[in-house]
């Protein structure tokens, strides 16, 4: 089978809920020590209590705002101090506020790019030395189909930030390859999370109907993809992206989807 993650140190940003918590759960079950990073300490504590006992490894937390380079350096230092190093970074923290193009302000752009783009840069920069020291460092960025593949009204700034992550990873993959670190991205479609639930029942029903596999993804669907990209067996894959969307981006038209029955 695949690599054992027993004793491996994994940092997951945005791990207090949603996809990040699902990624953390999958790595915990695989035996890893997992550092959950997000801003809200109470939510982090609740997530840690939920994940505790899922696997053999330690689950610890750090309150961090990834849009701050200094806080990302503190996050990496905490992982090294508590878990002895960093083998895997899942740069997953992200926000997706909804605003029409005509109404987007400079502050909106700063907020979305601050978390989604600068947060990815800073998390990676902060963890690079420890990842290199492991001899098999793995970085998995959570991007999205929105931006790199598709568009959705209200998310021009969000889509641009998710596409920017892919521009970043292609060069980061080249620069970090000599240090035996791979950099890849998972592009989720619509995944059932607390964040998505906030968009409302109508949005979710429409989305399910537009997905060939006829269901939203689970957070573990994304976690398993991250686990694969973090495995020794994926060690020759770098600078790549994997769409995990139940086939959502495939139909050319509504007719193409309905013709399948
Ligand atoms: P979510 O449920 O809203 O969770 C977001 C997580 O990120 C939380 O833990 C949040 O905790 C953390 N976070 C937000 N801003 C942060 C900051 N400045 N510093 C540190 N942590 C921060 O969102 P999600 O749906 O799981 O999304 C996670 C990632 O998946 C995002 O990158 C998103 O773009 C991507 N994605 C999601 C979907 C989907 O269908 N859900 C689809 C495609 C891509 P705090 O607020 O406490 O910091």
Describe the structure.
- With 261 residues, this protein is an alpha/beta fold.
- It has one domain: 3-Layer(aba) Sandwich (Rossmann fold).
- Helix content is 45%, strand content 14%.
- The chain has 9 helices and 7 strands.
- It has a 7-stranded parallel sheet, with helices on both faces.
- Helix 1 links the parallel strand 1 (9-13) and strand 2 (33-38).
- Helix 1 packs across helix 8 (219-230) and helix 4 packs parallel to helix 5 (156-176).
- The longest helix is centred in the middle third of the chain and has 29 residues, at 106-134.
- The N and C termini lie far apart (36 Å).
- The mean pLDDT is 96.
- Bound molecules: NADP nicotinamide-adenine-dinucleotide phosphate (NAP).
- NADP nicotinamide-adenine-dinucleotide phosphate (NAP) binds next to helix 1, helix 4 and helix 6.
- NADP nicotinamide-adenine-dinucleotide phosphate is lined by residues 13-20, 38-40, 43, 64-67, 92-96, 115, 119, 142, 144, 188, 190-191, 193-196.
Shape: globular
Q: What name does CATH use for the topology?
A: Rossmann fold
**Lateral arrangement of strands in the main beta sheet:** 3-2-1-4-5-6-7
> What is the straight-line distance between the termini?
36 Å
Counting helices, strands and paired strands, the structural category is alpha/beta
The proportion of residues forming helix, as a percent range, comes to 40-55%
- The tally of strands reads 7
CATH class: Alpha Beta
> What's the gyration radius in Å?
18 Å
Ligand list:
NADP nicotinamide-adenine-dinucleotide phosphate
Q: Please state roughly what percent of the residues sit in beta strands, choosing from under 5%, 5-15%, 15-25%, 25-35%, 35-45% or over 45%.
A: 5-15%
Mean pLDDT: 96
Order of H and E elements: EHEHEHEHEHEHHHEH
Unreliable stretches covering 5 or more consecutive residues = none
CATH architecture: 3-Layer(aba) Sandwich
């Amino acid at each position: 089978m695949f690599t054992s993650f027993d004793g491996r140190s994994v940092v997951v940003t945005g791990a207090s809920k949603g996809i990040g918590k699902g990624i953390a759960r999958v790595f915990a079950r695989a035996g890893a020590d997992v550092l959950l990073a997000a801003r809200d300490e109470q939510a982090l504590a609740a997530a840690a209590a939920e994940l505790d006992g899922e696997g053999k490894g330690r689950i610890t937390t750090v309150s961090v705002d990834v849009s701050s380079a200094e806080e990302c350096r503190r996050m990496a230092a905490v992982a090294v101090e508590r878990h002895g190093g960093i083998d895997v970074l899942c740069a997953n923290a992200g926000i997706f506020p909804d605003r029409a193009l005509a109404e987007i302000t400079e502050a909106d752009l700063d907020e979305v790019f601050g978390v989604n783009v600068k947060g990815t840069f800073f998390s990676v920069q902060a963890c690079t030395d420890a990842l290199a020291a492991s001899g098999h460092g793995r970085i998995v960025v959570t991007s999205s189909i929105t931006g790199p593949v598709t568009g959705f009204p209200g998310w021009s700034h969000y889509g641009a930030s998710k596409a920017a992550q892919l521009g970043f990873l292609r060069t980061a993959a080249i620069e970090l390859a000599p240090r035996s670190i791979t950099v890849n991205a998972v592009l989720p479609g619509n995944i059932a999370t607390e964040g998505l639930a906030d968009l409302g029942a109508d949005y979710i029903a429409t989305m399910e109907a537009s997905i060939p596999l006829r269901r939203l993804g689970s957070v573990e669907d994304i976690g398993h993809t991250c686990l694969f990209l973090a495995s020794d067996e994926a060690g020759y894959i770098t600078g790549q992206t994997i769409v995990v969307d139940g086939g959502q981006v495939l139909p050319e038209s509504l007719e193409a989807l309905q013709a399948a029955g």
